[in-house]
Amino acid sequence: MSTTTDTIGAATGTAASAGGDILYRVDAKKVRAEIGKERLIAMFRKMLLVRHFEERADQNYKAKKIAGFLHLYIGQEAVATAFYDHLKPGRDYTVTSYRCHAQALLAGLDPKELMAELFGKVTGNVRGKGGSMHFFSKEKGMLGGHGIVGGQIPVGTGAAFTAKYLGNGGVSLTFLGDGASPQGTFHESLNIAGLWRLPAIYLIENNMYGMGTACSRAVAVKNIAEAKAPGYNLTSFTYDGLDLYASWKVAQEAIALARRNEPVLIEAKTYRYRGHSVSDPALYRSKDELAKYQALDPIERIKADLIAEKWLSADEAERINEETLERIQAAVAFADESPEPPPSELTRHVYAE
Question: Taking the domain 28-337, which CATH number applies?
Answer without folding.
Answer: 3.40.50.970
